């Protein structure tokens, strides 16, 4: 059965969140999405399958903050709603986890369909369009690749040449920003900083 069809009546396709919300993975409702659940989940999901240096995992929450920082550096005058979209670009992973790109390629279309539906519901919940314009998606992807380059070379053991071939060039963040965002934080710190940045962008 594919993700395009509902599961059998006796198959559970929802996850209960700490907020008490029950999120259906096949037909996610924006009303069942809470930012506290997203922050809590992303702060506990490891990037690079946990294959990073440091006392803590490098969480998806910290990664999304890095991506938003890279996007801010690349396009300083970009609208705050689009910065919010960058912060939330990996938000579905609070439910489905962070699967490395090679494994996503193995799984194929069903995984991507579930991911897209979750992201659309998340966007609607927080006042963003269900689907972003292609130009904005490209900007976020470019910032995502820049963040991946920094993570790969600083934390995940990639050589600069290998990272450049896979992810493109170094985005050139100031050293103080690099040191902060590329030092793995505890889950509690990642959750707190993600929520703080979200609230700042929403305000």
Question: What order do the helices and strands come in, and which of them pair?
Answer:
Blueprint: E1 14-16, E2 22-24, H1 35-42, H2 60-74, H3 80-87, H4 93-96, H5 101-107, H6 109-125, H7 134-154, H8 160-167, H9 175-181, H10 187-202
Antiparallel strand pairs: 1-2
Helix pairs in contact: 1-10, 2-3, 2-7, 2-10, 3-10, 7-8
Describe what you observe in this structure:
This protein has 203 residues and is an all-alpha fold. It has one domain (33-202): Hypothetical protein af1432 (Orthogonal Bundle). It has ten helices and two strands, in the order ββαααααααααα. A two-stranded antiparallel sheet has the order 1-2.
Would you summarize the structure shown here?
By secondary structure, this protein is mainly α. Helices cover 55% and strands 3% of the residues. The chain contains 10 helices and 2 strands, in the order E-E-H-H-H-H-H-H-H-H-H-H.
Q: What's the CATH architecture?
A: Orthogonal Bundle
**SSE-based structural type:** mainly alpha
CATH superfamily: Hypothetical protein af1432
Strand content: under 5%
CATH class: Mainly Alpha
| Count of DSSP-assigned helices | 10
How many separate structural domains? 1
> What overall form do the CA principal axes indicate?
globular
Radius of gyration: 17 Å
Average of pLDDT: 91
Q: What's the story with the biggest beta sheet?
A: 2 strands, antiparallel
Strand order of the largest sheet: 1-2
Let me know the number of strands: 2
